[in-house]
Structures are given as structure tokens and as C-alpha cells.
Write a structure and sequence with these properties.
Number of strands: 4
Distance between the termini: 21 Å
Shape: globular
CATH architecture: Roll
CATH topology: NE1680-like fold
Order of helices and strands: EEHEHHHE
Number of domains: 1
Length: 94
């Protein structure tokens, strides 16, 4: 599994964000290949209606952490990614 720090723009106003504003995201992708995970990250952001997705940082989550139930229970986004294959979180700032 990979976790990405990404940015994308919104075409219309969304919550506290104005139309066209760049929004920061943390995206978990449950995929073994980095290239494929990056493409899925971009695709999922586009699918959610965001434009110009850019990946800023990427990190592989070691398999040992994915076996730790305490860690999984403490991080709902990680649990969601394990269950559904991905998870997207919007942040107000990096």
C-alpha cells in the first residue's frame, strides 16, 4: 500500500474552498506497484471531480504495519483503504 500527499484543483466551490483553488489531499492506495498506485491516485481524484492532480510525496507502507490491528483501528483512512482499495482525505493545509 502507498500513501500520497497530492494537490488538485476544484472546478466549483467546495466547503471552505473557492472554485479553482488548489486543495491538499492525503490518498491511500492499496496497490503493490508504485506506478499503478500513482495512476490510480490521479484517477480517483479526477473521478471525484477535481482537476490537475499532482502528487507531491509518496511513501510505501511496509507490510508489517498492515498486519498491526491496533494501528489499523487507530487510522480510519488506512482501514478504509484496506477494505475498499483506496481512501481520500481533504486537508485544510499541508
Amino acid at each position: 500500500m502507498y500513501v500520497f500527499s497530492a494537490n488538485a484543483n476544484t472546478e466549483k466551490a467546495l466547503g471552505d474552498f473557492k472554485a479553482g483553488e488548489e486543495i491538499p489531499f492525503i490518498v491511500y492506495i492499496n496497490f503493490k506497484d508504485l506506478f499503478g498506485a500513482e495512476q490510480l491516485c490521479r484517477l480517483y481524484l479526477l473521478q471525484q471531480g477535481f482537476i490537475n492532480p499532482k502528487i507531491e510525496k509518496r511513501k510505501l507502507i511496509d507490510a508489517q504495519f498492515l498486519q498491526n490491528q491496533k494501528l489499523i483501528d487507530a487510522d480510519p483512512a488506512l482501514k478504509d483503504a484496506l477494505d475498499s482499495g483506496y481512501s481520500i482525505q481533504i486537508f485544510n493545509a499541508h
